[in-house]
Amino acid sequence: MSYIRKITNSEELSKIIDLPDDLKNKKVEVIILPYEENTKTKKSHKSLQGSLKKYKNQELINEENTAWEKMVKDKYENS
To answer: What domain of life is recorded for the organism (predicted)?
Structure first.
């Protein structure tokens, strides 16, 4: 793979791209590499929705609405 590597004054680059303040008025190294999009390595994002479905417990799901109330009652009932 061929590339270009050059050390230059950042003022030359500021004509082409916006540079952060901490790079202005300094020597910088510029490396230019070819961009090759490879569709084989391109990852697609899959949804994890439903991946834990086999672990669900319907009885516990039904109790979720009152879980906080039960916990507070158990903890502070005799205080």
So the answer is: Bacteria
- Rounded Cα distance, 52 and 61, in Å: 14
Mean pLDDT of 46-75: 86
Helix, strand, coil abundance in the chain, percent, nearest 5: 35, 15, 50
Q: What is the CA radius of gyration of the chain?
A: 30
Cβ 10 vs Cβ 27: under 8 Å: yes
* pLDDT surpassing 90 at residue 63: no
From the CB of residue 40, how many other CB atoms can be counted at a distance below 10 Å? Answer: 4
Task: Give residue-wise pLDDT tens across range 28-42.
Answer: 999 999 987 766 655
Contact (CB, 8 A) for 32 and 1? no
- Residue 16: beta bridge partners? none
